[in-house]
Write a structure and sequence with these properties.
The structure holds two protein chains of two kinds. In chain A, α3 packs antiparallel against α8. The longest helix of chain A is centred in the N-terminal third of the chain and has 34 residues. Chain A contains eleven helices and no strands. Chain B has two domains: about 55 residues, no CATH class; about 230 residues, MetI-like fold. In chain B, α1 runs antiparallel to α14, α9 runs antiparallel to α10 and α11 packs antiparallel against α14. Classes of the chains: A mainly alpha, B mainly alpha. At the A-B interface, α1, α3, α4, α5 and α6 of A face α1, α4, α5, α6 and α8 of B.
Chain lengths: ~260, ~300
């Protein structure tokens, strides 16, 4: 039986406190009635009301949501294909090159990716805005989807596929009816990760956007540079709540999925 | 008849396989590889006040003479600027020092956390891993912003320190290098803990029992057994943190001072404020060259992990 030593318990507890305390403080202070951020003026939802009337912020949030949904969906398709290639295709000409292209965006500094994509869009003479940000985010996030789906494919019981093929099922149909449903939870997790990465990104969006398409992080960033504001605490709390609800829902859904299997 | 049909089936399958490879490969080539090559090309061009603000521009329509003109117009002037101006050299150095220091602190903090999770009861481990990963899903910008609330002059940290009587006057926390390192450690902690946990969790505990039976003190068993066995996790975690930190922009911009810049900020300023695209491109390429070795090691580890799991 495992014995949890005091040191182990303490280090995990302190680590989690370090991770969550700043977020908790931010959430609490978003309900502060006082305009001064550090003076507690009682509970209030006035900053949420103020936010509701801030059209610029709402527009930016809507733009970010659309870009995130679009790029996460595109990245899920491309990333799943890339994962299938890396795990299943075996050795093919250019495999090292291919894996290099897939894994590089994971660690490459964002400023370099952003600059590179902007220069491409300029060279192609594309109008920068909603679509260029969506393309840039798809490129960034597809690598993350690949890593998530790839780890699922590696622990996957291939005998189910082989059985289907032995019974004469064509490869495409096998993939669609056997493989895809089984790896679907991983693709959904990858989609969520891609969505939050896109919704969160400031640097690449700043490079690849144009006039007319301001994303929520760009908007928050320009406000934060001017100093701390209670409205920003409020929008941040909403974003945290959305993510938390999404994660809990996804976890419950995957649990239920596992039970019915 | 049967053979012909199965051959047709086989060629169709080959085409299907090729298509599966081709689609992501094409996307990554057009939107990742070619853009990087364009950065390289523009870093060898000269700045000009025009749209786009650099020469020469490759004109494939002009045929061979066009390509010759293009090659003749390339120059290393931008790299000479980088090498001769202290501004660039110090910001490269600064980025590497901050990235190195932060990675070291991340390892010191992350290892006990990962170890603690790996020794927790099985059912609890998944919950704890999720708890470490969850902050990563809440926006990066929000987490840095949360620290501004705490670290500013009239912020909560100073209030707490004064209330406890530790200091009399508010201490300046924001706009210091300590604030940058703190922000980086906070933001990148999940990237360090998760790879470490992945290797520690697989470790065979009977090895530690064997070491204890043979009379090794616990610290010695830890140092000689646990640490070497988790080396791959340590390297993966360190690279996963070090490489992006070296190019970090948001954290030093919001938590750091304006007198000394990290290289990501220098690139940003060259591009957005000075509008000097060729120099910004040269900064990017030079950063990439510095980070090439760590990136290649990281890729090699990824590929090896794939092969081990497949075997």
């Amino acid at each position: 039986m495992r014995k949890a030593s005091l040191f182990n318990v303490m280090s995990v507890a302190l680590g989690l406190a370090f991770l969550y305390l700043p977020i908790a403080i931010l959430v609490i202070y978003s309900f502060n009635a006082s305009r001064l951020v550090t003076i507690w003026g009682g509970w209030s939802t006035r900053w949420y009301v103020a936010l509701w009337h801030d059209q610029g912020m709402l527009d930016a949030a809507w733009t970010s949501l659309r870009i995130a949904a679009l790029s996460a969906t595109a990245a899920s398709v491309l990333g799943t294909l890339a994962a299938v290639v890396l795990v299943r295709a075996g050795r093919f000409c250019g495999r090292t090159m291919f894996s290099g292209l897939v894994y590089a965006p994971l660690v490459m500094p964002e400023v370099i990716i952003g600059l590179a994509l902007l220069l491409l869009f300029v060279a192609l003479d594309l109008d920068r805005g909603f679509w260029t940000v969506a393309i840039a985010h798809t490129t960034l996030t597809l690598s993350f989807v690949t890593v998530v789906v790839q780890s699922r494919l590696l622990t996957f019981d291939r005998s189910l596929e082989e059985a289907a093929m032995d019974l004469g099922c064509p490869p495409l149909k096998t993939f669609l009816t056997i493989t895809l449903p089984l790896i679907f939870p991983a693709i959904a997790a990858g989609w969520m990760l891609a969505f939050t990465l896109s919704f969160d990104d400031l640097v690449i969006a700043s490079f690849s956007t144009g006039p007319g398409a301001t994303t929520l992080p760009m908007r928050i960033y320009s406000e934060v540079r001017l100093g701390v504001k209670p409205e920003i605490n409020a929008i941040c709390t909403i974003m945290i709540a959305v993510v938390a609800v999404g994660v809990v829902a996804a976890t419950l859904a995957s649990k239920r999925g596992a039970r019915t299997l | 008849m049967m053979i012909a049909a199965s051959n047709r089936e086989k060629t169709r399958r080959d085409w299907g396989d090729r298509l599966v490879i081709l689609i992501p490969a094409l996307w990554l080539t057009v939107f990742f590889l070619i853009p990087c090559l364009i950065v390289l090309k523009i870093s060898l061009s000269q700045t000009t006040i025009a749209q786009p603000p650099y020469v020469p521009v490759l004109d494939l329509g002009a045929g061979w003479p066009g390509i010759k003109d293009f090659i003749a117009g390339l120059s290393f002037d931008n790299y000479k600027v980088l090498g001769s101006d202290w501004l660039y050299l110090t910001s490269y150095l600064r980025s590497l020092v901050i990235a190195g220091l932060s990675t070291f602190i991340l390892l010191l903090i992350g290892y006990p956390i990962a170890y603690g999770i790996a020794r927790a009861p099985r059912q609890l481990q998944a919950v704890l891993v999720m708890a470490v990963f969850l902050p990563f899903l809440t926006a990066f910008l929000i987490r840095i912003y949360a620290w501004i609330n705490i670290l500013q002059r009239e912020g909560l940290l100073n209030d707490a320190l004064i209330a406890l009587g530790i200091v009399r006057e508010p201490v300046v926390w924001l706009a210091t290098d300590a604030a940058i390192v703190l922000g980086i450690v906070y933001s990148y902690l999940p990237f360090m803990v998760l790879p470490l946990y992945a290797t520690l969790e697989k470790m065979d505990e009977s090895l530690l029992e064997a070491a204890a039976d043979l009379g090794a003190p616990r610290w010695k068993a830890f140092w000689l057994v646990t640490v070497p066995l988790s080396a791959s996790g340590i390297i993966a975690g360190a690279l996963l943190c070090f490489i992006p930190i070296a190019g970090e922009f948001v954290i030093p911009d919001l938590l750091g001072g304006s007198d000394a810049l990290m290289i990501g900020q220098t690139l940003w300023t060259e591009f957005f404020q000075n509008k000097d695209w060729p120099v910004a491109s040269a900064v990017a390429i030079a950063l990439l060259v510095i980070l090439l070795a760590p990136i290649l090691i990281y890729q090699h580890l990824q590929m090896r992990a794939l092969e081990i799991a497949d075997a």
